From TrEMBL:
One of its GO terms (molecular function) is polyamine binding. It comes from the Bacteria. GO terms for cellular component: periplasmic space. Spermidine binds at Y88, D174, Q175, R176, E177. It comes from Candidatus Thermofonsia Clade 1 bacterium. The lineage of its organism: Bacteria, Bacillati, Chloroflexota, Candidatus Thermofontia, Candidatus Thermofonsia Clade 1. Residues 1-19 form the signal peptide. GO terms for biological process: polyamine transport. This is Spermidine/putrescine ABC transporter substrate-binding protein.
Amino acid sequence: MAKRLVLLALIAALSSTFAPLGAPSQAQQLDNVLYVYNWGDYIDEELLVAYEQQYGVRIVYDNYATNEEMFAKLQAGAQYDVIFPSDYMVARMLALGLIAKITPENVPNRKFLDEQSVDSWYDPENYCVPYTWGASGIAYHVSLEEPPNSWAALFDPEQVAKYTALGGINVMDDQRELLGAALQYLGYSVNSTERAELEQARDTILRVASEYRYFNSADYQETLLPAREVILSHAWNGNAAKAALLTRSEAYPDGEWRFVIPKEGGLRFQESVCVTASSPRKATAEHFINFLLEPENAARISNAIGYLNPNVGARDLVDPLLKKFLPSKEELARLEWIRPLESDARRLWDEIWTEIRIGG
């Protein structure tokens, strides 16, 4: 559920913890408020406080759980300056003219980004700035004697029954992710627009949906996994890493959670940070984005949320545990990007998804 944080400056000493940015005269030209819309648990919130404190900009911060939720809210008239859409949603929003092109000279810290992340299929003209990247697969507790290696762990009735008996399953409440995983399990593309294939994926999910303990894509990494509410979860790799960070102990120095890309494949993503086309505070939004790209700040974000970022300057500052949750070269070859859908296909996906959520 979205939460609103109207962040206030806390203590003056906090600002020295974070990388400074810009001259005082630069800060005086900034707007006094900035509206930011991000995924839940997807930034170091102390960093927001530090920015407020250093530059006198009040940040109004809201969270969303899916790209579709974010898109719908913007379409309904919500006014945000900075957003964090995934690759396919960036492409969709660019096509609709909903994203402003970042002015390169206002974001000089783009120089820290690796070229591969900047040269993307979904944003060829670099309207936005890459933020994080990763993949979806399966997170599992280290106590499992036979770790999963297939999407069958989520969709095969016998395997679902086994993992339910061992502690329960969570799947993501995300249309493109859950349907995409079922499509891959069946040997289809995660971007299928064939009704027969989507209906087969729907039926595959509904066949076992009553066995799922949770449909949660918002905060499972902080709630369900650390508390052992489930033994296995459909997961993004960074969220699995966050659960591992939260369960570190003397007995488990690398935490209690692991991550695997199923043999059938997984879904790859890259999140970006963008300025909305409707923002009247574009220069302030760009200043904030440049602040996030300071290597020290980028590393703090990764260490707080569990996802690695494409900031070359931050690599040596990131917790080494996070790198253990990256897909291997072999696994990367099995990943598929989510692509934007045309309007007719979106209506079909929405129809199928509604049937799943009603039936599940």
